[in-house]
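Fill in residues.
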């Protein structure tokens, strides 16, 4: 079954229709099943979950999550890792309600305890947390169960995937949360404060994904009041990094994320708005956000995302300073809608 379904969505759908999921879950939960058989069942279920959203819905209808969470109580590490891998795939699907992770109050502390088992448990659990942390209630639950202390040391892991998922965890934990952000400022990892580690991770020689996520962490901590807006790590490191992400050399998703995060960072602070407006020709750079080809439906969606991100950043840049507003409306970086307006195509 495992070999049949790998990379084949049609075969996955066929197996689900034939009733494979209840049978696999039955074998997974049977005390008489060997650990090897249970592990293989978890692997096949994980492969089925990697198919379409309908596949994930079918798995959820069969109550797969309680069965896999029960599997985490095993003493066999390979089986635990297989269950976590499957849970990761299911929880990262948009059709899975995040609340299913928090239904049983014993689950979060047990996941925290499993973080020390292997780099795979670290990667999968951090990924589950970062996808299932939606809003202050989830942040509070994870924070109260020691998420900061348990995840902080993973930022120095030898595994890039572990470091990256830990970083993503901190970005969702810190977002609009003063309590978490104030705690993060004072956390030491191998003798270094967490903000210093984030700054190292947004240097140019690091992968773009790492730079962006580190910049998000520092941005959210700053907006939550844990880091001053005139701190060097914001003015000299975070802001320039986010401006770099707006360059047309970056991937579309990176440009959108960079512009939206920068807009959020500078929104309440006039000095950051002024600095951003004169950094790396940012205003001129934003004009390129309106030049994305939009002949196909897929491109239309991306073009809309780019324009939306650009307008958010224009709004933040010009929120308080008349000189910056003039730069946007009169300079080479003005949006096409303003150009047309000035030419009399539409009323101003």
């Amino acid at each position: 079954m495992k070999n049949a379904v790998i990379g084949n969505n049609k075969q996955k759908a066929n197996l689900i229709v034939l009733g494979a999921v209840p049978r696999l879950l039955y074998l997974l939960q049977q005390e008489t099943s060997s650990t090897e058989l249970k592990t293989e069942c978890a692997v096949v279920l994980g492969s089925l979950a990697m198919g379409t959203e309908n596949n994930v819905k079918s798995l959820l209808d069969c109550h797969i999550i309680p069965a896999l969470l029960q599997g985490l109580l095993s003493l066999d590490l390979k089986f635990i890792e297989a269950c976590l891998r499957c849970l990761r795939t299911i929880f990262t699907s948009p059709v899975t309600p995040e609340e299913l992770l928090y239904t049983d109050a014993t689950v979060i502390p047990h996941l925290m305890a499993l973080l020390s088992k292997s780099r795979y448990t670290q990667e999968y659990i951090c990924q589950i947390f970062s996808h299932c942390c939606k809003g202050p209630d989830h942040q509070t639950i994870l924070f109260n169960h020691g998420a900061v202390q348990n995840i902080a040391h993973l930022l120095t892991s030898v595994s890039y995937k572990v470091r990256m998922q830990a970083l993503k965890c901190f970005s969702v934990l810190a977002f609009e949360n003063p309590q978490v952000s104030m705690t993060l400022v004072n956390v030491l990892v191998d003798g270094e404060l967490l903000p210093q580690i984030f700054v190292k991770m947004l240097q140019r020689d690091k992968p773009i994904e790492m730079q962006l996520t580190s910049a998000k962490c520092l941005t959210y901590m700053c907006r939550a009041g844990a880091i001053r807006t005139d701190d060097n790590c914001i003015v000299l490191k975070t802001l320039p990094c986010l401006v770099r992400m707006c360059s047309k050399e970056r991937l579309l998703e990176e440009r959108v994320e960079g512009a939206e995060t920068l807009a959020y960072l500078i929104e309440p602070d006039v000095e950051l708005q002024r600095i951003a407006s004169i950094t790396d020709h940012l205003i001129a750079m934003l004009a390129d956000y309106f030049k994305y080809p939009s002949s196909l439906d897929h491109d239309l969606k991306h073009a809309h995302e780019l324009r939306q991100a650009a307008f958010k950043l224009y709004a933040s840049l010009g929120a308080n300073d008349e000189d910056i507003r003039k730069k946007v409306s009169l300079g080479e970086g003005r949006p096409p809608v303003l150009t047309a307006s000035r030419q009399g195509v539409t009323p101003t």
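Residues 297-317 form the longest helix (21 residues).
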